[in-house]
User: What shape does this take?
Amino acid sequence: MFPGFGTVLNVVTVVAGSAAGLLVGHRLPQRTRDVVTDALGLVTLLIAAVSAAAVLDAGFAAEVGDSATVLIVLGALLIGGIAGSLLRIEARLEDVGSGLQRRLSRDGDGEARRRFVEGFVSTSLLFCVGPLTILGSLSDGMGLGYDQLALKATMDGFAAVAFAASLGWGVMASAIAVAVVQGLLTLVGVIAGSLLGDAYVAAITATGGLLLVGVALRLLRMKPLPVGDLLPALLVAPLLVSIVAVIRT
Assistant: This one.
């Protein structure tokens, strides 16, 4: 297969799953939709915990030192959060969602718009932040196969059914974010080849795991954390690994 096939497969499963969710969504009472969203929030917490555990990765610790792994994740979140808030990434994501809602939905009332934006932002972050997104896209780009993205596509497809039944059309629009983010990461994989070390991937994965905690808290309606503003942390984390590794040598 060609580089990027895994992303194409992922986009197809998100669209198909969203369509299935929309077909059955109107038949479900609101309380059932809320229960589905809560269940997805709990599963997201589980995935977040597994991802965040990458901070204990042996290769990560060997590269930067045992005591520096947590500090690197902390620094990435602080620096990335400051940069993201100054760039207003969360607000811009919501603006994108609002713009897509106006183009794709005829229903313009406030509640419909809120649900569309919530569906687009929440599922875009869920589908685009995580170890399989990073590792799968890079592996696909480096010609190592699309197995990881095939697994992710399957999970995203089932998740899209439940999310679309609860949050509507915004979930299908998140396929655009999947195509852009994973497409860019696949391109990075094509260019970088196998130059990205395990320590860098572990730092990104651990940081992404904490971002997923924020997504889970939003889904559980506990606290609307501006996870979008924290996304630059995924770029800061490997930079901090490089800096610490140079200092230690």
Summary: The chain has twelve helices and no strands. The radius of gyration is 18 Å.
